[in-house]
Design a protein that fits this description.
about 350 residues, alpha+beta, DNA polymerase, domain 1, Dna Ligase, domain 1, 3 domains, five-stranded mixed sheet, four-stranded antiparallel sheet, 13 helices, globular, nucleotidyltransferase
Length: about 350
């Protein structure tokens, strides 16, 4: 049976929530984040995007592009609550819901619980209910696999939807630049471009052996998606693979005591998620980014899971101490726990606690 997959993606989610809750922000360029110090844009309204403002952009750059840009602090507790409302709507139509983040998810509606005749009608009804319940708009992509559904959801944003039928999938992929493909990051796109691969059609012309030679195991994935093929199922029980927290500091950390305090704070954030979810991991990773943007990571995998906050502190501190004496000031510290033996609550609990405005 041909699958019917919907990818639902909320429109400028964080910024739209802020505009919904504060009428003074409606119709104006809004950025969620911090305008001070080393602030970055966590999310931008569509009014701001018209000026070229994008997420992860330094706030200084964003203000140069749009001097009228209004910055508002993030409210992750509100975003999570709205996300839960949206998730409840999804579950009225199918138990096969795979959240990707607070604002997007895959739904397999091959057999929808409402008995609607098509995935297109299902997506239309879901988007209408989201708007009725939350006052926010969503876009949707409908197709026969996850890869194409995700591509389609971006076609008619904001507040639109797009259908890619089985017969149209290969031709749709052929006309896109490879940088648009999920799973092809900027560096990989550059490598492909250097090899003469600029579009889906170029990628499809490559032999599997050629792609494996240049891209390793990922070559098989690129070979498949160039033909509109993706056999991944929507997995509602997708296990959490890691939990991490990181902070960018407005002033570089230059003393070991400062760095250790930062590591403890990030480890505390990670452990808060562990206690909430029941998740336990064996690998601890510490990330540090120097003032010159050089980044280093240190990891250690234990024979048993990290069982308490003190152990997480101990391992993380031992890792960061390998960087002493510091070669330069440190602008970012991160701690991640991975190699999970058990994951509990599958709800998203995003722990990017960033002093520069968050993501």
């Amino acid at each position: 049976m041909t699958r019917k997959i919907i990818h639902v993606d909320m429109d400028a989610f964080y910024a739209s929530v802020e505009q919904r809750d504060d009428p003074r922000l409606r119709g104006r360029p809004v950025a969620v984040g911090s305008a001070t110090g080393r602030g970055v844009v966590a999310a931008a309204s569509y009014e701001a995007r018209r000026f070229g403002v994008r997420s992860a952009m330094p706030s200084v750059t964003a203000l140069k592009r749009c001097p009228e840009l209004i910055f508002v602090p993030h409210r992750f507790d509100v975003y999570r609550a709205v996300s839960q409302q949206i998730r409840a709507i999804f579950l009225d139509y199918t138990p096969l819901v795979e959240p990707l983040s607070l604002d997007e998810a895959y739904l397999d509606v091959t057999e929808n619980l409402k008995g609607l005749p098509s995935a297109t009608e299902t997506a239309t009804e879901i988007r209408a209910r989201i708007f009725e319940t939350t006052g926010l708009t969503a876009s949707a992509g409908i197709s026969y696999n996850k890869f194409l559904a995700k591509l389609a959801s971006d076609q008619n944003k904001p507040n639109g939807q797009c259908v890619i039928t089985p017969g149209a999938g290969p031709a749709f992929v052929a006309g896109l630049e490879v940088g648009r493909f999920h799973g092809v990051g900027p560096k990989t796109a550059e490598r492909m471009n250097r090899l003469g691969i600029r579009t889906g059609a170029d990628l499809r012309a490559c032999e599997l052996a050629f792609l494996l030679a240049h891209f390793g195991k990922a070559g098989a994935w690129y070979h498949a998606i160039a033909r509109g093929e993706d056999d991944r199922r929507v997995n509602p029980d997708q296990p959490r693979k890691s939990s991490g927290s990181e902070t960018t500091y407005e002033v570089d950390l230059v003393e070991p005591e400062q760095v250790e305090a930062g590591v403890r704070a990030m480890a505390d954030d990670v452990w808060a998620w562990c206690e909430k979810s029941g998740g336990r991991g064996r690998t601890v990773t510490v990330k540090a980014r120097y003032a010159d943007f050089r980044q280093v990571t240190r990891s250690r995998t234990r024979a048993s899971t990290v069982g308490d906050r003190e152990t997480l502190h101990e391992v993380a501190l031992a890792l960061v101490r390998t960087l002493f004496p510091l070669r330069a000031g440190i602008r970012l510290i991160g701690v991640t726990l991975s190699t999970f033996d058990h994951t509990g609550d599958e709800a998203q609990f995003d722990l990017l606690r960033q002093a520069d405005g968050g993501r």
